[in-house]
Design a protein that fits this description.
The chain is mainly α and 113 residues long. Helix content is 48%, strand content 11%.
């Protein structure tokens, strides 16, 4: 089952990426609404006129103007680095090994530090 899932993902993700890139580069067009030019892209038939509703234009505006900053990532990165440093500093330098059953002879060699 896992192999089938990996095989599907191996083909699905590149096809999804290629179709997305084709959609935003091959179908670019513009609309003039109330003196404002709106440029966007989506698949449509060339030569045929089409229009969008006000809600569609608002959705296009929201999708095209998403702003992502790293303000949320900086505290997470700092916390991860500090916790890693605490683990590395607090780690004991020598490992201690103790036998679980003192009277029983073990048939394996002791671990090497």
């Amino acid at each position: 089952m896992k192999q089938m899932y990996l095989n599907i993902m191996k083909w699905f993700l590149p096809v999804l990426f290629i179709s997305y890139m084709a959609g935003i580069t091959l179908f670019t067009h513009s609309h003039v609404v109330n003196g404002v030019t709106i440029v966007h892209s989506h698949p449509f038939k060339k030569g045929s006129e089409h229009s969008h509703t006000t809600v569609e234009f608002q959705l296009i505006h929201l999708l095209n103007h998403v702003l992502t900053t790293d303000n949320g990532l900086l505290p997470l990165f700092t916390a991860a680095v500090l916790s890693l440093l605490c683990i590395l500093i607090a780690r004991p330098q020598s490992a201690r090994y103790c036998r679980t059953c003192p009277g029983i002879i073990s048939l394996r060699a002791p671990p090497v530090v």
